[in-house]
Amino acid sequence: MAGMDAFRRNLYMLSLYSEERLFLDKMPYSSVWKTSITGMPVQQQWTHPTSTPSALRAMMSHSMGQVFAVIPTSAKPDYIAARDVNHYILCLLRQVTLQMLESFSGWPDEDAEVDTSRNSLKHWMENNASSARKCLWHAVCVYSTLKAKQKFACHDPLCFLIAFLYIWAFDALVVAPEMENQPEIFAC
Q1: Domain ranges, ordered by start, for the chain
Q2: Cβ–Cβ < 8 Å for 90, 14
Q3: What pTM did the predictor assign?
């Protein structure tokens, strides 16, 4: 991978991400997969739905994480010179889906869906604090990189939106509650 130019590296990352997302999104609906994991016949699975096994999701995330980790360090000066944000966005979207961020913002969902998304995102951030902070770092890298750019590529505004939505969610769900619990130091 070290010999790849920036364009081929981006295509490779995007294809890995799309394959991983496609597999993880379809896996919970596969009757063959559920039968092999749960041992339940297909007819009983409709009455007892199971979620994606967290062990497999963790294993895939770890192996894909190793691939993603190799890419930017192999050509770091190239990434800095190109002000490329694809790697950061993909690392963020591997943890938090765009649909969840859009739903958190209230677009285009109903209030009940916004509350569900908000609670789900808050639960994930509380239970995975390290991953949530790492996603915040990725979002801030996207924000600062794009802020310094003179001209945007066609995908940069969407990347900027994703980064902003995550920073907003982190601030609203993690930072704001912590600030409310702090004692007032400068009370008059």
Answers
A1: 83-181
A2: yes
A3: 0.71
